[in-house]
Amino acid sequence: MKRLGRRNFIKISALMAVLISLLRFLPKPSPREIKVVRPPGAIVEEEFLKKCIRCGRCVEACSTNGTGTLELCTFSDGFNVVGTPKINAYKAPCEARFGRCEGVLPCVKACPTGALIWVEPHEIKLGSVEWLRERCIAFKGGHCLVCYEVCPVEEAIIVREVNIRKGRKLVTVRIPIFNSEACIGCGRCVNACPAIPKALVLTPKGARRPKPSS
Fold first, then answer.
1. Fewer beta carbons below 10 Å: N end or C end of the chain?
2. How far apart are CA 203 and CA 191, in angstroms?
């Protein structure tokens, strides 16, 4: 991705300032209505939307020095969040914990407004994973536990044997069990899932969002 020049940055900032002023007239989303997974260090949503100027610098930093998981929200994510950053685990996982960005956080360092603030590795929880068992290869009797194999967090995913019916027979299969409290929402399992369509969805449920310093 090309770096933003000074002129382009000023133009984008001006356009985003207009957009932000318009967004203030819209009803604020409640935590339950937030559907996108924010970058590490994203402050509580109401304050985040006030501070984020939609400049895209965090996305650029992620593309250059991170995994490239960050992208800008579109109208399909909701008008209130257009132009703000989100994690797309289908593109790449977030490695703010147990990876290349731990202790570095290039997206946070690139943020000019404090919409993203520094958080220690142990404080990072971006969300959790939803398991769609009807899509899961393992649940359908296939030999797949890729999600378990790539997960870096102890106890976030465990393996359990269950009996499922295939035709007239009961078959014992090994399936993943997800612990939403232990999950940090990095998206490694989502990214690695080989099912088509994928059996895992990264959600913001359970995310820990820091409060901005006063």
1. C
2. 13
* β-bridge mates for residue 177, sequence order: 158
Residue showing tokens 């090309």: 2
User: CA 69, 72, 76, 79 torsion: positive or negative?
Assistant: positive
Measure the CA–CA gap between 114 and 53, rounded to whole angstroms: 10
Query: Could you tell me which residues are beta bridge partners of residue 87?
Result: 70
Q: DSSP 3-state assignment of 133?
A: helix
| Residue written as token pair 């967090």 | 153
What contacts 151, CB < 8 A, 6 or more positions away?
157, 188, 189
Residue in the structure block whose two tokens are 């991170």: 66
Cis, bond preceding 197 (omega within 30 deg of 0):
yes
Could you tell me whether strands 85-87 and 70-72 are parallel, antiparallel, or unpaired per DSSP bridges? antiparallel
* Per-residue pLDDT reduced to its tens digit, 30-85: 555 679 999 999 999 999 999 999 999 999 999 999 999 999 999 999 999 999 99
Question: Do 73 and 86 meet the contact criterion of CB atoms below 8 Å apart?
Answer: yes
Q: What is the pLDDT of residues 118-136, one digit of tens each?
A: 999 999 999 999 999 999 9
